[in-house]
Design brief:
- By secondary structure, this protein is of the alpha+beta class.
- The protein has two domains: 3-88 and 224-421, no CATH class; 108-199, Chitinase A, domain 3 (Roll).
- The chain is 48% helix and 14% strand.
- The protein has helices at 3-13, 37-46, 92-105, 155-159, 205-211, 217-251, 259-279, 284-290, 295-323, 330-342, 348-355, 357-375, 386-401, 417-427, and strands spanning 73-74, 82-87, 108-109, 120-129, 132-145, 167-173, 187-199, 253-254, 378-383.
- The strands form three sheets. Strands 3, 4, 5, 6 and 7 form a five-stranded antiparallel β-sheet that branches. A two-stranded antiparallel ribbon has the order 1-8. The chain has a two-stranded parallel sheet with strand order 2-9.
Length: 432
């Protein structure tokens, strides 16, 4: 996972991801200094408890420092839930859209000729209103597919017929209902320079044989459809597991937080943030300022993150204790195999070396509990619409990225604050 994505996820969003793993941390290391008197007394009481089913989680793989989690959390009903599994059918249009992505990626640059609808263009443009440039009205090396309707009316039509290297002025008008009120209804002149453009490759048996693992268009189309159907099924499963967990979590109530666990989670989280910000070539104070956060805001966010993390661990551990579940049973082994395959690791040990044992154990335990909840639920299959399918696919991609092992080049891993600003600017001339 690119470190800029991690920083955005961990610092800017400050959310607890269902399967999020960070770098190796010291969350398992605790000291008596971080434990208050109440926790010490509870630990003594916990040591005598005998009503918890024996699992390997009570022998060194526990997610929390306390043995009896019932003193800290009341767990909502997690058996007999009624859940929906929303799945999306794959249409011919979906298949063609996916094929078009491949055709675009393998498109050829047009040296001679003019832009047509469907071409991918790279342009520089500057917008002026009453002769003055305005915020968000300019960009360089901006890429778009002509005809997709990404820009305001008339912009893309004006590019049709241009040649590479040509500069053209487009006299346009922002819509009266444009989302940015400062430019809504105003006349604008865009000076556009066409850097280059590429054209979709033609879908033929020859192209398929040369650019894919298949020989004919029909074989290729069927393979793409199968891939999309598999992805849709996986997306539906992830949505089901997530809904199951969210329902149980919402029905649970934390009575108190083990101070030792919260302190450890908070410390680990802060250290992780500092590491990534440092790798981005910034000081934490400067980064917080760039995000409009004070030290107090950041401290509060870290505390909330730590408490959310501990809350999750308390609920998961409580269910595992009650049901005799283990992160080393046969079911969890299947999860381990799936994870190392999905994220490109050679073994679970390699994953632990990258993310840390505590983080991997937490992720596996949550996945194990989610599946237990679903196995003991009544699940109804329902059909989703096309828009839902797009959103779920995006969520799945973010989920996958949360444990991506790709480290990439260090220069690419920096926090791209300037890039984010540029993206915000170009959105000004795109349709809402």
């Amino acid at each position: 996972m690119k470190k800029k994505a991690v920083v955005a996820m961990l610092i800017m969003c400050m959310a607890v991801s269902a399967a999020a793993c960070g770098k190796s941390s010291d969350t398992e290391k605790t000291t008596t200094e971080t434990t208050d008197t109440k926790d010490s007394e509870d630990s003594k009481e916990d040591s005598t408890d005998t009503d918890i089913k024996e699992t390997d989680s009570s022998e060194g793989n526990r997610l929390v420092s306390v043995k009896d989690v019932s003193k800290y959390v009341t767990i909502g009903e997690y058996k007999g839930l009624e859940l929906n599994r929303t799945s999306q059918s794959v249409t011919d249009d979906d298949v063609q859209a996916e094929i078009n992505y491949d055709l675009e990626d393998n498109g050829t640059e047009v040296k001679d000729g003019t832009v047509e609808n469907g071409d991918t263009v790279t342009i520089n443009f500057t917008g002026t209103i009453d002769g003055k440039e305005f915020d968000g009205g300019s960009a360089e090396d901006y890429e778009l597919v002509v005809g997709d309707g990404e820009m305001i009316d008339g912009f893309e039509d004006g590019i049709v017929g241009m040649k590479s290297g040509e500069t053209k002025e487009l006299d346009l008008t922002f819509p009266d209902d444009y989302y940015e009120e400062s430019v809504a209804g105003k006349a604008v002149v865009f000076k556009v320079t066409l850097q280059k453009f590429t054209r979709l490759a033609e879908l033929t048996d020859e192209w398929v044989a040369a650019n894919t693992d298949y020989k004919t268009v029909d074989e290729y189309r069927e393979a793409v459809k199968k891939q999309l159907e598999d992805t849709a099924a996986q997306t539906a499963d992830y949505g089901l597991y997530s809904d199951a967990w969210n329902e149980v979590q919402a029905a649970s109530e934390v009575k108190d937080y083990p101070k030792e666990d919260v302190d450890a989670a908070k410390k680990s989280y802060q250290e992780l943030n500092e590491e990534y910000v440092k790798e981005a070539g910034m000081e934490m104070s400067d980064f917080l300022e760039s995000q409009g956060m004070t030290e107090e805001d950041y401290e509060s966010e870290c505390q909330q993150y730590a408490e959310s993390k501990v809350e999750q661990n308390l609920i998961v551990q409580g269910i595992m204790d009650a049901e005799g579940l283990s992160i080393n049973d046969e079911e969890t082994q299947k999860l381990k195999d799936d994870l190392i395959e999905e994220y490109g690791f050679a073994s679970i040990d390699e994953m632990i070396e990258t993310y840390g044992e505590q983080e991997v154990n937490e992720s596996l335990a949550l996945l194990r509990v989610e599946r237990f909840i679903v196995e003991n639920a009544t699940v109804t299959e329902v059909a989703g619409d096309s828009e839902d399918a797009v959103d779920e696919g995006d969520d799945l991609e973010e989920y996958d990225e949360s444990m991506d092992s790709d480290t990439g080049d260090d220069t690419e891993d920096n926090v791209d604050i300037e890039d984010a600003a540029t993206e915000d600017a170009t959105d000004e001339v795109a349709e809402e």
